[in-house]
Structure formats: structure tokens, C-alpha cells
User: Fold this.
Amino acid sequence: MTVSHLLKLIPFYSAKTLDAEEKKAIDEELPKSRELQEELKFWQRAAHATRSSVEFLRHGHPSPEEIVDYVEENIRNIQTRSTAEKHFQECDNCRQELEIIKETYPIPQASRKKESSIIASVLQYLKPIKPAYAIPAVAVIVICTIIVVSEFSGPTDKHAALTLQYEPQVRDPNAKRELPTLNVEDNITAVDLTIMVPASVDSTRYALSLISPSGIGTLLPDTLQPSSYHQAFDTLNVVLTRDHFIDKGNYQLIATEVLTPTAISLGLTPTPYRCPFIVSSGISK
Amino acid sequence: MSDEEIIRGYLEGNTKDYGVIVGWIREVVNTTLWVEGVAADDIISDTTYKLLVNFRAYRFKYQSSLKTYVQKITRFTIIDTIRSHKRAREYLSGNNLQPLENKSPLDIFEDEEEVTIFNRIFSLINEQCRQLWEMIFHDLLSYKEIAKKLNISEAAVKTKAFRCKEEAIEIRKKIA
Assistant:
């Protein structure tokens, strides 16, 4: 038998319905022929698709047409309808399909009519008090409102963000280190600073102070709880208004542990973590 | 533009008419967020293929508006697609497709794709081929038995199976 003859037998080989002689011929040729192997792969996939599809429908699941008819209330026969209803109650998959199909319809006519009737009744009330100049008047009011809002409202609330690193306690003072830089542009209203400090076992809060380029320190009013705890680091997030950055130059944010009474009684002292950064442009630039 | 003109344009490959029909399909498909591997694009391409076959065979009888008809076919396709994916998933999660050790991830991915595509092809292939495949793979009839049942020659059965394969490949080209 030639390969082209064998090719036509492959679907039946895949279904195992060939007689012994034909099967043997394919068994012998298959390892040698790439074409036969590809053909067999195709028919094996077709076989699976066919079997699973037929099995599925033989389990009594409704066809797509029946599901759509059910949703559109086109099943007139009461018995057919109740059979379908019972099936949907028992079969999770079909119920899920039913729900998906229901979602694909636009707003039901009934509620759409209700919506339009509400609009109609509102318009009916407005009709007697709607003079001819109403539309231009409304347009003028809208334009004026837009102008007033755009003129008198403040700048858009925009935050700058910066992640700071603490100055290690043991470091070479001569070593060069590139400091993070913050550019406080005119439209910036606040700065979000993220600080990562070594995880503390003695405290759950930190006190923060900001040292300006002129050396003036400001203790920030609230102590801060880390926003996230890591095995090695605590992460602190602080938001400072732009008033804190009047001058440009080198700033330092210092995070100091607020020790628990037990830690203090044990004679521990809090560790300050210095986080230097540069403000490249400030308010008084 | 009348429904008749849209259909004519669609069959002639007119982009504008094709766009109108795909727009109607999208209205239905885009109402829900598709999960579990079902791709909205699969539904759209399967629906456009079904419509092409139906329009060519004059199956649209103008008993409803064309838009209603298109959207109904889209809903049928949605169910077909969900079922195809479900069957493919069941098959893949079973023992039938345990990846071999020497198989590359790309091969495994291609296998998975192929299983899904074949399930979609089965829902799109013509009725005659579907029946033939059912006889071969579900009823497990030999080509001799099928020939007897259909009252045709044995060679004709094999040729029919071959033609169905060609059709499946054509469908695959259009949808994949």
C-alpha cells in the first residue's frame, strides 16, 4: 500500500476500526513517515473534539438555540419550558451559560419604558415654565460657572514623590554617594516621602524631624507608624506640604525610634536614621 | 443601508459592511468580561465565520432584522465557545495530555491551543462532516460499515473524510 492510500485510512486507524492487515501496514509505515504522523495527530484531535462534543449533548444539556430561546421566552410549550427550568436548577454549567447570555441583552424594554416615562413626565412639568430664552440663559450660566471655577480654584493638587535611604551608621565619610533629588515644581502642593529604615524590635513608631539646608530642624508633629513591616526593613510614608521646602539645597529627614517603656527601662537608647536628600528647586528659587 | 446591501457587501468583503456586522457582534460580546481562557476575539471570529456560511447558503430569511439575526448567532457562538473551552480544559486536565519530559513548554502550549481550536472547529464544521466524524469516532463504525449505512462506496467514505479534513483546515485558517 502506498503512503497516499494509507493516509486515507488514518482516521479509521485513529478510531481503531481497521482490519488487522490495514492496521499492520500503518504500524509499519508510521515510524518512518512524518506525513502519516502529522495526519494521525490531526485525526486524534478531531476524535477527541467529536467524542467530547457528542457526549456533552447526550447528557441532555440544552443546545445553544434552546438556551437563547429560553432567555427570550420563545419556548411556548409549557412542558419543554419546565424541563429546561429543571435542568438549569440542577446543572451548574448550563445555569452559568444562561446567566452569561442574559447579561448580553441590553436594558429590558420594561425598565427602558419606565426610564423614558420618567424623563417624559419631568419634561411635561417643565414645559409650562420653559420660556424661549431658557436655553441661551442656561448656556450663559454654564459658561460663567466654568470661567469662575477655572479662575478662582487653586492649582491642581499634585504630589511629588521620593524614596529615601538612611545613612548607614558605619560608613566611610569620604565615600561618594549620590543623593536622591527632589524637584519641587510650581504646581507641586505636597511631597510624598518613603523611608526605609532597619526593622526595629524595640518600637512600633518613629518620630520624624526635617533639617533644612540652613540647619534649622523641625520636629514633625505626629509620630509615624510604619506602613509596612518587612523582616529587614520598616517602611515609613510621610506627606509633607511644599512649605517645608522653602530653600533649595541639602535636607535631612531623621527618623528616630520611639521606644517602648520596657525598652527604656532596659536602658536602650533610640537610634536615629538620617536620610539625606537634595531639593533642587524650592519656593524661594 | 438595507440589510440586503449589508449582506451583499459582507460577502464581497466590503470593509464598511464587515465593520457594521462586527459592530453588532461586539455589542453583544462586550457586555461581559470574559474569563477562564475565553477570548472575545474567538467569539467574534467564530461568529463572522458562521455568518459567512449562513449568508452564502441563503439561511437568513429576512424574518427579523439583520442586526437581531447577527446578535442571535453571536449568542449561540458564545455558548459554543464556552463549551469548547470547557471541554478542552477537561481534556487537558485529564490524563490524556500529560506532558512528556522531553517536551518543550512551547510544544505543550501549542498542544493546548490545538485542543481548544479543534473543539471550536467541530462546532463550525458542516453538518455532513460532523455526522461522519460522529460515525467514525463516537459510534466507532469502520469505513465499510459507514459505506453500507450511507449507501455509498468505501472509497467515497474515505474521500469524504479527506474532504472534511480539508474543510477543517480551511476553518482553522479563518479562525485561528
Remarks:
- The mean pLDDT of chain B is 86.
- DSSP finds eight helices and no strands in chain B.
- The first helix of chain B runs from residue 3 to 11.
- The interface with chain A takes residues 28-29, 31-32, 71-72, 74-80, 82-83, 86-87, 90-91, 96, 114-115, 118-119, 121-123, 130, 133-134, 136-138, 140-143, 158-159, 161-162, 165, 168 of chain B (CB under 8 Å).
